[in-house]
Amino acid sequence: MVGKKRVRPGLVTVLLVALLAACTGGPDGGKQASPTRTAQDPDKPNLVLVLVDDMSMNLMQYMPSLTTMQQEGTTFSNYFVTDSLCCPSRASIFTGRYPHNTGIYRNVGDDGGYVTFKALGLESDTMAVDLQKAGYRTAMMGKYLNQYQPGFPDKPRKVPAGWSEWAVAGYGYNGFNYSLNQNGAVVKYGSAPEDYITDVLSGRAQDFVKRAGEQHQPFMLEVAPFMPHAPYIPAPRHADALPDVKAPRTKAYGARPKNAPSWLKRYKLTKADQKNMDRDHRLRAQTMLSIDEMITALRKQFVELGIADNTYLVFSSDNGYHMGEHSLTNGKTTAFDTDINVPFVVVGPDVPAGKSVDALASNIDIRSTFGDLAGAEVPDTVDGTSLAPLWREGGQGEGRDFVLVEHHGPVTDKKDPDYPLPEGGNPPDYEAIRGADWLYVLYESGEQEYYDMSKDPFQLNNIAAKMPAKRLKELQTAVRRAEACAGTAACTKAQGAGG
Fold first, then answer.
1. Whose CA is closest to 100, among 359, 458, 408?
2. Cα gap 304→391, rounded to integer Å
3. Averaged confidence pLDDT in the chain
């Protein structure tokens, strides 16, 4: 049912992406796998995930490296997140499971955040653990989960299971004056230009790749910048870049859907809102420039090390972001495409160039995808499936009629870094299913939304009240079936009907 969910007994989850084998020292005491392959062993390709924070689709244009990846690889146009909120989404990436199976619906509190993730035992059942068992050397760098703190120099936090190298911050949104837990040693960074967090993560990522590549060790790296998350701090060198950029004025900008749900009806953009959003959109675009440089540097390094033909690179975001659409100022957490549809671009050995995949995909699929590519054993208790068959030429995927989105709201904790702006939108509990060209939302109150994107691509006309009763009942049944599914087979079946 819509509302609070019950975690299945004994269900433990999985961290995103990963790798590794047995261990001897790396920098800062990190562990390394024993050399077991050549740099071009196709059975153990390298896996790299660049996961940015709060990136909307309209920021892709400011990343030439991403345009190059799209030209040389494959783009998933219908890739969605399980919740347009950081921690639930990242928990789904790490574990391959929907929020109703992780118990992670918020950034903080009993039903969310790092504290709950750890308490539920999810750190010991992650993608990192899968890949480590398969002989991979794994590294996690940047943003992990909300509430995570690196600890203190005299009492650092222990590195979670499955990760051979670790360079993770707590609050890194300001770009400067943060601490990284570097393989169990807490290191403080200041306010000098070279301390900008995206650049530091880029340098550490390149160092990891260099060592693993030179030693012919299969590796998995997740590097997760804190940008373009608020307060949108670009690198100092980019402070004057993109002077004419403003928030896009789509048909949804400043508009409110017809028959809007009750929580959305009060919002209206002011001229001050529009001016502020133009400023903020430019800042967000500027923050992407250092991420663009990081991707360029990593890909150049793959070539120099001779591992480019054996390395998969995936670029994505934990959720999207709205800025003016549906009359809302800066924010997320809605079921609109601005918030749930995010980039997913992949390049790699068998990835077709210039291809676009329109099959429905979700962030619950990353664990299974990486496991498939690495030949790792992925538990059948995960909810997702591998996306690799969808990009392989002539390959067939597990077809879905829809993907599930789950949200617990409204967000009320002012300590939450995603506590919404007063006019940013803050919906209550809902379950949503997103089909190929439609969206259905069921709120805990019983309110419903249905958008037909074949006629209404900007989701501005809620026609739920005009839908036949039989169709609405089918959609409600599909929601309840999906929100109760558990495991690959059951969730694949649950999403295979109802569209």
1. 408
2. 26
3. 91
Which position has the token pair 């961290």?
A: 15
pTM: 0.91
Q: What is the pLDDT of residues 168-198, one digit of tens each?
A: 999 999 999 999 999 999 999 999 999 999 9
Which residues contact residue 10 at a Cβ distance below 8 angstroms, ignoring those fewer than 6 apart?
none
Quick one: which of 407, 382, 399 has its CA closest to 436? 399
Residue 221: pLDDT band by 50, 70, 90 thresholds? very high
Out of 86, 87, 485, 491, pick the active-site residue: 86
Query: Which residue is associated with the tokens 């608020």?
Result: 230
pLDDT at position 41 is: 72
d(CA 397, CA 376): 19
**From CA 97, how far away is CA 217, in angstroms rounded?**
29
Angle at Cα 297 formed by Cα 294 and Cα 298, nearest 5°? Answer: 85
Residues 183, 27: Cα–Cα separation, whole Å: 8
Q: Are 453 and 341 in contact (CB under 8 A)?
A: no
- Domains for the chain: give ranges and CATH numbers: 42-399 (3.40.720.10)
> Among 359, 366, 430, which residue's Cα sits nearest to residue 400?
359
Q: What's the Cα-to-Cα distance from 392 to each of 71, 103, 347, 361, 425, rounded to whole Å?
A: 16, 34, 12, 15, 40
Calpha distance 124→129 (Å, rounded): 7
Alpha carbons 288 and 59: distance in angstroms, whole number: 8
Question: 185: which strand partners?
Answer: 182
**Closest by Cα among 415, 439, 413 to 426:** 413
Do 12 and 122 meet the contact criterion of CB atoms below 8 Å apart?
yes
Ranges of H-type helices in 161-311: 197-214, 271-304
CA distances from 296 to 291, 333, 354, 370 (A): 9, 31, 18, 22
Active site residue 491: no
Angle at 229 between CA 451 and CA 260, to 5 degrees: 25
Say if residue 428's pLDDT is above 50: yes
- For 459: left if phi > 0, alpha if psi spans -120 to 50, otherwise beta; the answer is left
The conformation of residue 3, written as its DSSP 8-state character, comes to S
Q: For residue 482, give the H/E element and its range.
A: helix 469-482
> What pLDDT band is residue 330 in, cutting at 50, 70 and 90?
very high
